[in-house]
Amino acid sequence: xxxxxxxxxxxxxxxxxxxxxxxxxxxxxxxxxxxxxxxxxxxxxxxxxxxxxxxxxxxxxxxxxxxxxxxxxxxxxxxxxxxxxxxxxxxxxxxxxxxxxxxxxxxxxxxxxxxxxxxxxxxxxxxxxxxxxxxxxxxxxxxxxxxxxxxxxxxxxxxxxxxxxxxxxxxxxxxxxxxxxxxxxxxxxxxxxxxxxxxxxxxxxxxxxxxxxxxxxxxxxxxxxxxxxxxxxxxxxxxxxxxxxxxxxxxxxxxxxxxxxxxxxxxxxxxxxxxxxxxxxxxxxxxxxxxxxxxxxxxxxxxxxxxxxxxxxxxxxxxxxxxxxxxxxxxxxxxxxxxxxxxxxxxxxxxxxxxxxxxxxxxxxxxxxxxxxxxxxxxxxxxxxxxxxxxxxxxxxxxxxxxxxxxxxxxxxxxxxxxxxxxxxxxxxxxxxxxxxxxxxxxxxxxxxxxxxxxxxxxxxxxxxxxxxxxxxxxxxxxxxxxxxxxxxxxxxxxxxxxxxxxxxxxxxxxxxxxxxxxxxxxxxxxxxxxxxxxxx
Length: 537
Ligand code: DMJ
Hints:
By secondary structure, the protein is of the alpha+beta class. It contains 18 helices and 22 strands. The radius of gyration is 22 Å and the shape is globular. 1-deoxymannojirimycin (DMJ) binds next to helix 17. Keywords: Calcium, Disulfide bond, Glycosidase, Hydrolase, Membrane, Metal-binding, Signal-anchor, Transmembrane.
């Protein structure tokens, strides 16, 4: 029994309503909800068509009822919330049962996956899921995850880790869990792990290499990165977490490392004002002129605007770099298709590749977030651009048979917003499109974003839910897709969290007080009066 109005993240329901959770946690199928004060009981089976229609109808109702808080739409939003809770619980319970201590769940073969991104670290799903479990108030499950971190999370490991992945998933996940709960264990693990990443910065320029052995401290560049280069989206996606590591430890070294990256980037000449994806950590010069707001470039831009927001709008250098970069991107990469869809192409030494990766779909949300803070005229311009890009990404979902989007879609040879290559037709439970829906919803309150989010939920339930978890699919253009047997940790960290937030009130992790790292882990804005939860109590 959780009195929701005591929830630390803000009131999600009027103070006279309590929600009884036990039936959900004991038996998510059929799902039974009880709104005790209003004495409303809603029982349904989530596989039945009636549920589907009811919820669809009710979501639609919201659009013309607006967002006033009356008992009817509270009933409905509670139902939707519980729907997300059961999805998260299903994903977590299966991971726990079959793969606890491994990095990810293989939901078809019912075993764990370790992979080679985390250099011997384990429990990527545990650390990635911590804050989502907490925010959803899945208390028992949160305790299970916390206990694993306390008792089994071993940092004394050897092996090749991606600096970027360890930072965004583990450090980001631990920092968010600390700020939300005030539990020291998360802070100390984050700091200890942060120390282990520092040797990667020992290069002539201070630009870190992409791969590090967490035991020996040896670091090197990815074999596939041209001429030993470092990747823009990797070394450009450390700033938020590293500033918090300095803030929490009092050790300036973390901030110094990322401020130095900023310095190198400021100095290097930008072709047409653009930032290519490959930079030499030895010379500090670009190695290739490939520019993309999707993979290899993406979260560098995201961290510029979020650095400014996280600094309580004091880091004006980051804002200027973001504004200039976006202006260059708009000038050289943003295009409109014959069918009227706006997209962001990739740039190879001046030649455009008319393709958008699923990863690039986070940019609708980013541009909307940045637009909020321009002058009135610019604001409208960027809000329009953000809405157009989000619409294009929605089209990439809507034009598939599964209603889930492909890994990449193209705008050439008569194709619009669809994959043209067999190798680009898969969907691995990625969050970027839903992420943009959340920002667009919060900043416009246009109910279509919730409707689009609900379409994703239905598609996930229909095509990705398997007996023991959620799985990616190999082809979004067939309604009998084959599964890839992988429940990615970012599905729990990002996709389910963003879907949940899409249907929450705006004060749950308010955009005024929190920025989400690129793995959707919330970090507090540096208002001078901010304190983690433990010190508030
Ligand atoms: C996540 O790990 C992060 O969002 C990252 O920035 C990009 N890729 C995945 C999800 O698609």
